């Protein structure tokens, strides 16, 4: 069905300069006006885009579709990404069990280097302003882990490797989208009986000046999605006036949870007034940090010496907020302040039997970075012949670590909608015949997730007044109310 | 998808909420956390607070009762607020690190008398001399559980005499109440506020003066000025009093002794005049 009327062009990698694809096109069509047509053109080779293509290729029904990927970065670098076992990328995400099962289903998980993945079964969450309200989540050893910490690059590499083993797709990497427009109206009389009305097909002009047309154009092109702009889809949302500071933390040699007792590996999150700080174990003596804080504080953190940065991180999991606020006013000397405050409250020093993370010893060089945090939700994920997935469709506060998982869920859902359409002989670019299924399945559930995480952010940014008291009460009540507890654990469980 | 995701997640088995402060009875009182510490349970705390409040109203000279009242009402909230005020300030933090104590040993009265005329130390010692008190007349903190907060309370108490020196308010009930109102506005320690109830023991004229002059002074200066708990008095002894008062944003209140003296003078003159006039009429 799909692609009928087209000379079946041999599928090939067009890399790096896309010259091969260009030759094919000029061979087939004399006029520059008739571009190369693909069933699916995906803009953006992040986790969302790559997993969509892998899903489409790995399913029998959709494996024959003509697929193209446009990515501005060099994917060869992602394919050959390799770090020694004592170094970790700071862009690390926790993958939920449902993300893992999707990745296994499309055959990508076996290509992930699992020696670099750290599952955890325990979680400790507490309030920086009333430290006796804390909540613990513990999974039995017979149950799947709460989530698995995975470097984004480890996942991307696995997805690319999986695609390598599958029927070929057209790859335009190191190429960005220069323009997207609709095709010209069909000339009358038609040039040939096989020519197709391309007037509703999005035409993507690449930075290489080459144009390709898409039966279905997928925007997996991140927060500032050009595809979304082309489709005229509006977004709703706001900036949080917060930055997420990330870093790879080093623990004292031989103290990593994962080595001693893999079953005890615990994720920690403390809600400070500016935002939560999270400590997520990595294999061996490493952990990853995600610290949500104000832009000036993020700037201060990045300007500190390594020793003082380490002291700030250790302080942020133990000291009172008043001490932290004071330490944020200093250009240096955090080490000394921490030492003094720990001597005043020796109880904090013992790390309370696993209730707070162990002291970190150092930070991997060059691993401290920060990102502005925002909330965005596209008013719809689909229009005629266009679908948005991943961060192009929604951007979320990282406090529940859901961003990447939501992108993978989008891929799974869109791939299954396309599969359904193909099996029923429908046009995969048609909204009613195909795309609505995806939009209906994902939009509401993502909207709920965005709302819940946003509310948690505002709830915990209150520093005083009844909200703080109610928060503590809230944590205690969570336990008593079954459904609420389930909801809360779902939010936090995927940190 | 959302519901599938829900069931895909592990059935988490245990959610625990830990609470730090455990109640105890008289039989299993926990060990003291610092020298002189008497751990109280909630019931004892409330009883002691109520008892000492009533008793000290009846007898404001019982310093020990006022001390007990101050400590029992300062926990668990207000003393932490005061400590946090110190922890937010560089000098306050330095005081908490050094933990200086003010006693007749650390504050030698003879040395203080040799300091410059309008200096803080000289004002302090002349205040001690005028009121006939010594740096050692302060009770030790007993009922505050946190060891650092106990020091904060002790520091506040030992600095109290400097507040008199700084404001020039005298030690008798009227001056004391005005200073307490100032301290309440500045430190928010409840006991300082409660002490204001001592106005019930004032004469009507004093009470009017308090409402019209001293209370407005105390409230506006106490709220507007910097946290006086963060003054490192030991380092300010040679500082000019007016200079320090300016830095802290405190205006000097009308001198109570002068006011009283001039009021007495007024009364005497009025009486004499009346007597004279009476004498005239008698003629
Ligand atoms: C501090 C922080 C912590 C996070 N922690 C977690 C976590 O713990 N768990 C989790 O699930 N998520 C987490 N996330 C979110 C997660 O990283 C993102 O949701 C995820 O990377 C989105 O994937 P994506 O494929 O949609 O977009 P991206 O990864 O942004 O990929 C978009 C791709 O499109 C390409 N592109 C863009 N424009 C063009 C163009 N014009 N032409 C060609 N190519 C283009 C880009 O080069 C890029 O490769 C976190 C995010 C932050 C900021």
From TrEMBL, chain A:
PROSITE patterns per UniProt: UBIH
Requisite cofactors: FAD
Enzyme Commission code(s) on record: 1.14.15.45, 1.14.15.46
Superkingdom per UniProt: Eukaryota
GO-annotated molecular function: 2-methoxy-6-polyprenolphenol 4-hydroxylase activity; 4-hydroxy-3-all-trans-polyprenylbenzoate oxygenase activity; FAD binding; oxidoreductase activity, acting on paired donors, with incorporation or reduction of molecular oxygen, reduced flavin or flavoprotein as one donor, and incorporation of one atom of oxygen
Localisation: Mitochondrion inner membrane
Reactions it catalyzes: a 4-hydroxy-3-(all-trans-polyprenyl)benzoate + 2 reduced [2Fe-2S]-[ferredoxin] + O2 + 2 H(+) = a 3,4-dihydroxy-5-(all-trans-polyprenyl)benzoate + 2 oxidized [2Fe-2S]-[ferredoxin] + H2O; a 2-methoxy-6-(all-trans-polyprenyl)phenol + 2 reduced [2Fe-2S]-[ferredoxin] + O2 + 2 H(+) = a 2-methoxy-6-(all-trans-polyprenyl)benzene-1,4-diol + 2 oxidized [2Fe-2S]-[ferredoxin] + H2O
Pathway: Cofactor biosynthesis; ubiquinone biosynthesis
Record's keyword terms, sorted: FAD, Flavoprotein, Membrane, Mitochondrion, Mitochondrion inner membrane, Monooxygenase, Oxidoreductase, Ubiquinone biosynthesis
Top enzyme category: oxidoreductase
GO cellular component terms given for this protein: extrinsic component of mitochondrial inner membrane
UniProt xrefs under SUPFAM superfamilies: FAD/NAD(P)-binding domain
Keyword set includes Flavoprotein: yes
Ranges where the FAD-binding domain occurs: 38-322, 355-441
Pfam family, one: FAD_binding_3
InterPro entries: FAD-bd, FAD/NAD-bd_sf, Ubi_Hdrlase_CS, UbiH/COQ6, UbiH/COQ6_monooxygenase, UbQ_mOase_COQ6
Membrane topology: Peripheral membrane protein
Self-association state and partner proteins as the record states: Component of a multi-subunit COQ enzyme complex, composed of at least COQ3, COQ4, COQ5, COQ6, COQ7 and COQ9.
Function field: FAD-dependent monooxygenase required for two non-consecutive steps during ubiquinone biosynthesis. Required for the C5-ring hydroxylation during ubiquinone biosynthesis by catalyzing the hydroxylation of 4-hydroxy-3-(all-trans-polyprenyl)benzoic acid to 3,4-dihydroxy-5-(all-trans-polyprenyl)benzoic acid. Also acts downstream of coq4, for the C1-hydroxylation during ubiquinone biosynthesis by catalyzing the hydroxylation of 2-methoxy-6-(all-trans-polyprenyl)phenol to 2-methoxy-6-(all-trans-polyprenyl)benzene-1,4-diol.
Family, as annotated: Belongs to the UbiH/COQ6 family.
Protein's name in the database: Ubiquinone biosynthesis monooxygenase COQ6, mitochondrial
Organism per entry: Letharia lupina
Automatic annotation (TrEMBL), chain B:
UniProt cofactor(s): Zn(2+)
Keyword line: Lyase, Membrane, Metal-binding, Mitochondrion, Mitochondrion inner membrane, Ubiquinone biosynthesis, Zinc
Gene Ontology CC terms: extrinsic component of mitochondrial inner membrane
Entry binding sites for Zn(2+): 160-161, 164, 176
Predominant place of localization: mitochondrion
InterPro entries named in the record: Coq4 (IPR007715), Coq4_euk (IPR027540)
Subcellular location: Mitochondrion inner membrane
Pathway membership: Cofactor biosynthesis; ubiquinone biosynthesis
GO molecular function: 4-hydroxy-3-methoxy-5-polyprenylbenzoate decarboxylase activity; zinc ion binding
Topology with respect to the bilayer: Peripheral membrane protein
Record Pfam families: Coq4
Function: Lyase that catalyzes the C1-decarboxylation of 4-hydroxy-3-methoxy-5-(all-trans-polyprenyl)benzoic acid into 2-methoxy-6-(all-trans-polyprenyl)phenol during ubiquinone biosynthesis.
Alphabetized PANTHER family for the sequence: UBIQUINONE BIOSYNTHESIS PROTEIN, UBIQUINONE BIOSYNTHESIS PROTEIN COQ4 HOMOLOG, MITOCHONDRIAL
Assembly mode: Component of a multi-subunit COQ enzyme complex, composed of at least COQ3, COQ4, COQ5, COQ6, COQ7 and COQ9.
Official protein name in the record: 4-hydroxy-3-methoxy-5-polyprenylbenzoate decarboxylase
Lineage: Eukaryota, Fungi, Dikarya, Ascomycota, Pezizomycotina
Gene field: COQ4
């Amino acid at each position: 069905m799909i692609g009928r009327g087209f000379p079946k062009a041999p599928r090939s990698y067009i890399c790096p300069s896309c010259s091969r694809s260009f030759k094919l096109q000029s061979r087939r069509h004399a006029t520059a006006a008739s571009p190369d047509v693909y069933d699916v053109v995906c803009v953006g080779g992040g986790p969302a885009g790559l997993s969509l293509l892998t899903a489409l290729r790995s399913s029998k029904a959709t494996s024959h579709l003509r697929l193209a990927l446009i990515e501005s970065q060099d994917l060869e670098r992602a394919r050959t990404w390799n770090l020694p076992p004592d170094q970790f990328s700071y862009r690390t995400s926790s993958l939920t069990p449902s993300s893992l099962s999707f990745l296994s289903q499309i055959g990508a998980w076996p290509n992930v280097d699992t020696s670099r993945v750290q599952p955890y079964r325990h979680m400790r969450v507490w309030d920086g302003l009333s430290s006796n309200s804390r909540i613990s989540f513990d999974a039995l050893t017979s149950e799947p882990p709460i989530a698995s910490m995975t470097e984004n690059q480890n996942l991307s590499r696995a997805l690319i490797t999986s695609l390598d083993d599958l029927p070929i797709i057209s790859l335009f990497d190191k190429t960005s989208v220069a323009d997207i427009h609709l095709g010209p109206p069909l000339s009358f009389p038609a040039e040939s009986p096989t020519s197709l009305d391309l007037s509703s097909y999005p035409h993507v002009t690449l930075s290489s000046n080459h144009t390709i047309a898409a039966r279905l154009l997928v925007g997996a092109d991140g927060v500032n999605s050009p595809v979304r702009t082309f489709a005229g889809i509006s977004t709703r949302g706001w900036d949080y006036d917060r930055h997420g500071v990330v870093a790879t933390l080093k623990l004292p040699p031989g103290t990593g949870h994962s080595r001693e007792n893999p079953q005890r590996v615990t994720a920690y999150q403390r809600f400070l007034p500016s935002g939560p700080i999270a400590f997520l174990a990595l294999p061996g003596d490493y952990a990853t940090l995600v610290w949500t804080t104000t832009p000036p504080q993020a700037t201060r953190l990045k300007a500190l010496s390594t020793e003082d940065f380490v002291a700030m991180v250790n302080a942020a999991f133990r000291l009172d907020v008043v001490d932290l606020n004071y330490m944020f006013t200093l250009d240096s000397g955090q080490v000394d302040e921490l030492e003094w405050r720990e001597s005043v409250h020796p109880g904090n020093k013992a790390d309370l039997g696993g209730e707070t993370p162990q002291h970190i010893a150092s930070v991997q060089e060059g691993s401290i970075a920060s990102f502005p945090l925002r909330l965005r939700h596209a008013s719809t994920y689909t229009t005629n012949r266009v679908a948005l997935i991943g961060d192009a469709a929604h951007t979320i506060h990282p406090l529940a670590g859901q961003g990447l998982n939501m992108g993978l869920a989008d891929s799974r859902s869109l791939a299954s909608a396309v599969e359904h359409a193909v099996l029923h002989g429908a046009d995969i670019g048609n909204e009613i015949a195909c795309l609505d299924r995806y939009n209906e399945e994902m939009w509401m559930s993502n909207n709920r997730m965005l709302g819940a995480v946003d509310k948690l952010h505002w709830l915990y940014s209150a520093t005083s007044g009844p909200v703080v008291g109610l928060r503590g009460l809230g944590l205690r009540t969570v336990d008593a109310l079954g459904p609420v507890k389930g909801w809360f654990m779902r939010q936090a469980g995927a940190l | 998808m959302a519901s599938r995701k829900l069931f895909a997640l592990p059935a988490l088995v245990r959610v625990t909420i830990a609470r730090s402060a455990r109640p105890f009875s008289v039989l299993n009182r926990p060990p003291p956390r610092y020298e002189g510490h008497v751990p109280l349970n909630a019931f004892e705390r409330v009883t002691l607070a109520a008892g000492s409040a009533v008793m000290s109203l009846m007898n404001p000279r019982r310093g020990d009762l006022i001390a007990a009242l101050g400590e029992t009402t300062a926990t668990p909230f207000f003393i932490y607020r005061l400590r946090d005020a110190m922890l937010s300030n560089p000098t306050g933090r330095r005081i908490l690190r050094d933990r200086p104590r003010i006693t007749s040993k650390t504050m030698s009265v003879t040395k203080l008398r040799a300091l410059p005329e309008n200096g803080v130390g000289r004002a302090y010692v002349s205040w001690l001399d005028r009121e006939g008190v010594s740096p050692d007349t302060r009770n030790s903190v007993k009922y505050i559980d946190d060891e650092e907060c106990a020091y904060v309370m002790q520091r506040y108490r030992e600095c109290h005499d400097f507040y008199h020196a700084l404001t020039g308010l005298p030690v008798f009930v009227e001056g004391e109440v005005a200073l307490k109102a100032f301290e309440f506005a500045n430190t928010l320690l409840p006991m300082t506020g409660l002490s204001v109830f001592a106005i019930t023991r004032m004469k009507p004229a004093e009470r009017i003066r308090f409402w019209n002059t001293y209370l407005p002074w105390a409230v506006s200066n106490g709220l507007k000025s910097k946290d006086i708990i963060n003054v490192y008095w030991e380092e300010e002894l040679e500082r000019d009093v007016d200079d320090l008062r300016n830095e802290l944003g405190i205006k000097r209140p009308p001198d109570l002794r002068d006011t009283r003296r001039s009021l007495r003078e007024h009364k005497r003159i009025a009486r004499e005049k009346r007597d004279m006039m009476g004498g005239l009429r008698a003629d």
